[in-house]
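Appendix C reproduces, verbatim, an entry submitted by the partner laboratory led by Prof. M.T., so that reviewers can inspect both the input and the predicted structure.
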Amino acid sequence: MLVLSGLLLPGAGWAFGARLPLPWLAAGIISALVLLAGVIGLSAAHVPISLVSLSLWLAGVGLAGGWYWRSRPGISAPASRTNWQDCWLALPVLPMLIVACWRALTQPLSGVDVDFRWNHLALQLVAQQGLDFYPPVSPPDFTRYFWADGISPLVAGLYAWTYLAAGSTAKVWTAIPVVAQMLGLVFLVQALSRLWSSDHRSGWIGVALAGCCMLLQFAFNLGQETGLTALGVGGLMYYLTRWQRGEGEGLLLLAALCGGLVACAREYGPLYPGVSALWLLWRGSGWRTCGRFVAAALLLPGLWHLRVWIITGNPLYAHDLGSLFPGNPVFSAWMQAYMEAYGGVLAQAVGWRELGRLIVVSALPATAGVAAGIVVMRKRPEAGLGLLLVAAGLCTWIISIPYTAGGLFYSMRVLSPVLLLGCAWGGAVLATLVVRKGLRVACGLVLVVWSLDASLRALTIPLNPYRTPVRAWPDAGGTYQVEFAREAAAFVAAAIPHIEGRVLSDSAGLQHLFQEGDRDFVPLWSPDVRFLFANEADSDAGGRLRRLGYSHLLLKRAQSSIDFLERTGAWKKLQGQLTPVMANETYILLALRAPPAAP
């Protein structure tokens, strides 16, 4: 209960006091932003982030909201009551919710980068009681956080609070915020569909379509940023539409907070409130209204990126932005290899064929909903906003492809806001086509079968359920993660007795294991080893590394690792000084030895 209290009650005082539509969704969005503000503020004030300090902050904000609204009228018109007639049409959502709960409890945080980014940052927040190490700039920073990141700790803050409130850092506790986001998806899709249709069945059909979209399930089940971006964009659409219809002036502020949630979730997030501001101007809202909206939406993310700018010299630290701001040159060179490897996937016909296959298998209902919404809803006042948000979602996805090592499908999780809007639009449109009872029954049966397929695929991904034994279905989704973690832990456990100093590496996913073994595990882009990648010759590069305490180099057994070291000149500088110690199919550990004496 304490975990949920922190995730909902700080915003509940404001949401219920102001009588906002979808009050629990509004409470969750406000609470997430309040929690992030607390993490940033306490760290800036050098107040240790703990259960006590965060609880006092969250309780204070929640009580302030209740006090402020105690004698004031609500800011919006009361929402219409839910019509439960034909609610059986929403049955396809049940498999989705069952799979979400199962995966969150038995295979929590199953993303490929969770152990060095999202969850790792949360664990470091709890351990270090602050953000002094993040974003990482100095050599000591990189011993705690491997990746040269500057993403705001929105997701990490939610998990850090969860761990503090639970009194445990077991991943299973993250099931609470992950499942809460999935429930938010259900209520938001239902509300958006009803917003665009006078037929009460539209909401239930929209929810059913969400249950039929495997990619949308995947984006939420990962427990990364894409669940929050979908909720933020959906909330932005919902509250801004209701504000535009004159249902309450305060809804503009709530829409801006939804935009702020997206902007805090990832670097590309500000694009969504940005295009919403353009829509406001196009609809004649005026510069002052537009300015208030943008200021409210970008205040917290702006403060975060200002902090990143002050610390690193670059507001978007992980991106060099064409050398406009200083960055980490070695990390930028490393990421360039990613872009060369993955950036051209849609430059070839085979990439587009694969994209079409993935859409059919994982996102066809939502994709059809987007197309139908564009055609059917085009004359509505809010249609322009929907089109801009969809366009923004497509742009952010295309931009993200070169940076996604997980491949084309993994990059498509970024489309979660578009998929949410597509399901809601689809529900509104489909409700007008199934007026007769017989058609509704047939539609419901088709969607149930479709949702069973989608949820089964979401359960077993990355494995194909139809090529996997039925008895293996419950654990199939975590197979690769469990096997990788087991092999990595065994390799590190066997390697640590051989390591007397620090380890230099390109393998981000192992840092937490070396931390548990009390060994410094440092990325190739740590500033103290930048000389290794400098253009000038350095015959003493190995000696300088040894004097800094480095005794080993650990590399992924991939050609890209060797290519990077050769391209930057680092491999040549260490030639004759690296001796293999041990290896498995994934990694090789090399000892750094003094070069043989000249004869």
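The first helix runs from residue 2 to 17. Additional entries are available on request from the coordinating office.
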